[in-house]
Amino acid sequence: MIEAGDRVLLAGEGREFWVKAGPGKLGTDKGQIELESIVGKEGGGIITTHSGAEFTIRIPRPTDFFAYGKRSGAPMLPKDIGLVIAYTGMNHNDDVLDAGTGSGIAAIYFGGVAKTVKTYEIRPEFSTLAMKNITEAKLPNVEAVAKDFLDAEGSFDVVHLDLQIQTEHVTHAFSLLRSGGYLACYTPFLEQMAIVVDAATPLFREVHTHELIEREMTRSKRGTRPSTSVSHSGYVTIARK
To answer: pTM score, two decimals?
Structure first.
């Protein structure tokens, strides 16, 4: 049941609106919606504007936080986050450390998969914003920590880094990982990827780098072809202890 303050997505009439249930009104070109009327409903319920237009209530998923959540910068793309989850085998038994929180989008994806997620962000204002997104995603297993990753302590099954990675970050990640655990490093440039590979190779049993490429297909009356938008986003290096 939806409570006051819960984040929801209203979809219908060719429109989507990212709103909070509770006091206030949402003005749309299809009429006004009383946001208080969302409270007490379930996902899939129908909200009607004063002019009779219907919108379906959607309970947000991580993809919606990527599309609509407040951002402090450019988050990793869903396809890149998915590769990290797949190649580390992240699952409900895992304790995950994420560093370079940003807006918290990767941590939200990880929180839906792993047992616990602790995400480190050296910039307090970014960590605060990320925690708001995480709270709205209703993930009590995810904790945002406003500290340098190099100050992190504990024992983890997966360590994920999305920051300006230096050799000391890789070395510290190795010390935090349990035997058989994985380090995943996202790097946008080849030079940063090389730093990760050179630092990880002497420490880890396996080190593999993957280029992140995706091509969306478009279809029209003329035919079907790949989108002309840029398909490359960066590199993920996976290393197993």
So the answer is: 0.90
